[in-house]
Amino acid sequence: MMRRMIRVPAARGVRSLHALISQLEGNAPVTPGDRVVRSAADEFGTPKIYPEMKAKYGEMAQHANPAYSTVDTSEEIVLNTYPDGPTEGRIENTNPGSLKSYHAGLFDEKFFREKVLKPAPSADTEDKAPFLDYMLNFSCVTLFLVMVRYALWTVWHVGLPHATMVAMANVEVEVGRLDDNENKTVMWNGKPVFIYKRSELKLKLLNETPMSALKHPQTDEERFHGNVHAVVLGICTHLGCVPIANEGIFAGFFCPCHGSHYDASGRIRQGPAPLNLEVPKHYWIDEENLFLGATK
Question: Is 258 a known active-site residue?
């Protein structure tokens, strides 16, 4: 099997190497007469002085390299070109022999007064200016006070209840005469309240129940002060379901959701509920009328 070998002419390789070296930084001069920095004097020494630039443009241009001073006189850039552009937009020296005579052509005092400063008010408008200032200040202050007022008003009313909720927080309930083991449900603050009349047998069983048998020990006397009626919130203390009266192992209240059994005093006896049914604030006006929301 024969192999073909490709030979690169030596002249072509030399030209490629020369082109690569010529592109290295510092080897290709930017302008005629340019060279790389070879010493500390080149980098940190006094800049070179160009007498022709000083004679033509003044002392401030003496260090300007003529190679960089080629001016494009096209209309697009001649306005802001230094040093051959017009006086607007460039620094002009009216006296080449003195550095103190420099002024900014675009930002001189005359231009500032004519183009930037407001003209002096006439006699007719001189009296109107203070009035307009006062009206503007008064309007701003008034707007600020209105904003502050409504901001503070909103914060003041955060968390305050509505009047209807206050009215519902204290209600008088006409219970009437209940039979033994009869339960009546009323709504109070959006919650069901059980008013349950216990029989003498159930009261006897409640008083005989030892505290060791209770998950949340409380006596019936402590909860209802010897009244035959049990007044409890109809909300299971496990997950907030509504129990059923006269149901369960202890013939009190039973929550069918997860099997919590309460006795006739609303005390948890068996099941996942951790606490007894809550007793709302109340007192009996007489034997047939109940007041919810406060105690005597």
Answer: yes
